[in-house]
Amino acid sequence: MASHIQEDELTMSSEELLQAQLDLYHHCFVYVKSMALGAATDLRIPDAIHLRGGAATLSDLAADTGIYPTKLSHLRRLMRVLTTSGVFSADVNASGDTTYKLTRVSRLLVGAGGESSRRHDLSPMVGLFVNPVPITALFSIREWFTDEKSTASSSLFEVAHGCTRWEMIAKDAGDDRLFNASMAADSCLTMGILLKECNNVFGSIGSSLVDVGGAHGTATAIIAKAFPHVKCTVLDLPRVVAGAPAHDNVIFVPGDMFEYIPPADTVLLKWILHDWPDDDCIKVLRQCKKAIPARDAGGKVIIMDMVVGSAGPQQETVSKEAEVLFDVFMMYIDGIQREEHEWRKIFLEAGFSDYKITPVTGIRSIIEVYP
């Protein structure tokens, strides 16, 4: 082994060795970008830039976000990371002063300035992803892989925190609010786009739909508004349903998706199955199959989730990395982002006969599953 390593080193030039070192260090520091993004989101820096008419100096940002003047040089370093990575842009004038502007990424973090901004505000999702709770769990990967006691736990989360993710959400009101706000933010951005771009999928949902795990009904309310003739129901745990706001033409039903799903022509599972291992997904899908009529009577399940690699060999690097990074992130609750063959396996084991995947630009696809 030692001689093999030495031979490999001999085949690399000094330039190649230094480039490999640079690549390695870059991989190690990627998490710093996430931390900087989380800090900028918490400080509401995108809002500050937006409320300044789309351009702000460091002094403007410090004044509008409550940052101490003594931290101005540190703020400059934070913004340098985020402009280099494309979250913000920076213009430098002849005097050397820098003005920061929003990019298409940071525009999704603006919650101030009207309904249109709030509708696209994904800052709660940043709070969910860049959060000490899941990140602490990911520090236990080695232990989870190799320690006999830890491998008996079903998730990294249990190794790190001594309870399941869902148990913590149920106990922590703040965590529960963040989770529900995140799901609502995602629905506000994506559902209108998907209803427009995938009308062939949603235009055939029949006269009734049940949104399983639909939380406070944001996605369901958007569907109900687009299709007022459809009877829309949200199924979620009693504590979740109890805190849901009222929506026109949306009925909330407390229950457990593993035990029962109300009858409907269409069952919607939006970002649900990626939270669970295969056996649990099969249990949920079997309940879905019981709830819907036969295919010739219009029965189907709509799954909005990721299909890893669905974009094919021409998939862009950012998209490909986002998929596989999200997959490892989901290991913290023993969830999984599946490739098509993995989806097919659980569909067949749950008793379904056919499915159709509609790739959507972004992080997920739509899968129609038929009994």
From TrEMBL:
Keywords from the named record: Methyltransferase, S-adenosyl-L-methionine, Transferase
GO BP annotations listed: methylation
Highest rank taxon of the organism: Eukaryota
One Pfam family, short name: Methyltransf_2
Keyword Manganese listed: no
Active site (catalytic residues): H274 (proton acceptor)
InterPro entries referenced in this protein's UniProt entry, alphabetically: COMT-like, COMT_C, COMT_dimerisation, SAM-dependent_MTases_sf, WH-like_DNA-bd_sf, WH_DNA-bd_sf
Boundaries of every O-methyltransferase C-terminal domain copy: 143-353
GO molecular function: O-methyltransferase activity; protein dimerization activity; S-adenosylmethionine-dependent methyltransferase activity
Domain O-methyltransferase dimerisation, chain residue ranges per copy: 26-110
Protein name per UniProt: O-methyltransferase ZRP4
